[in-house]
């Protein structure tokens, strides 16, 4: 077993970490044939339920099953408590930053974040300047990607504040493990995650416009061809709210209504899974058939809440990410509890020179990129790929950031060749509402199923694991 990477289950002497002992004992006593049979059962069940994601760039309608691994990722209670505290701190600061840049812009005036990085950012929405959103919350749902590297230190890889996805897989993975291996849940005190939809709904209801006692909440989806459509239908069903498309809504007198068989019904909170550009064709992309004409006017008037708020994307842009530790110091007067990954910003001439000289060693990402696309993993790239990417960087250096290639932690994973280590990350889902910041224990663990791969995204061949946070 390689000692170059931190292993979640085994220490450097190949001894079991204490929080994995009960599971390892069970695993050692379980025949490989049973594990294989259970894995096949899981695949069949996920297909039957329709837990798939659409793949862009392939034939229209192509859908794939996200591979599910039956060996969980286990986190001890003390470690989770530290992570949770760091996540609360980080998301509080990000919300404060978003409120600030659309109002006083104090952090820009203080020179802590370069004004041009924000004001000239494609995700900065001038239409939101001066708009007061309920409780001052912009990112109601944040998916923060955490990785462990080196000797086991945790780092935030990126903040997802626009329309973070994956929570349905977290819930379905848990349901599947409980169904396949109920005996494991009597051996371990595992914190529950199934109440996430209830927590989310309660969170959304608390941020309804002023004076609305019993808010109507809907989930706005782009439709069945979106890659996360399964999640949209799943969450709407679990929360007991309507799943709507843009054509199901209309605006009258700066108020949003939903078309129903009983006539128009006012909508107070929209959990939107639609990017800013497509929300309102009167303001943003005029060709959008997915949004609701007049939605921004209703929003600016304070008659509807959008979760997440318009304009949150500027805070999860990869060129703004390096400044999050400074945001924590500026708004909260605290030192960051979670580390950022060291980052070179290629708009800076000295950073650009360094990165161009060290491309084979680094990971380079587009500042607006997502899903594992638009990036170069230097150590895994061919010379031709590196040189092609070099040309793209030189043509527009401001569009890229670079980071060291992290030695991501790995965890035993059940693959075709048997049980082998695979690299992984963790995406906890952090909810912000009137009553504060909360989350269910754990999150979505994504695992790179290709041997040696450091890219965990489902679009790039990654799978998922159930994430257990132990309660004792």
UniProtKB/TrEMBL annotation:
InterPro entries: ATP-dep_Glu-Cys_Ligase-2, CP_ATPgrasp_2, UCP005522. Pfam families: CP_ATPgrasp_2. Residues 72-448 form the Circularly permuted ATP-grasp type domain. This is Circularly permuted ATP-grasp type 2 domain-containing protein. It comes from Candidatus Accumulibacter adjunctus.
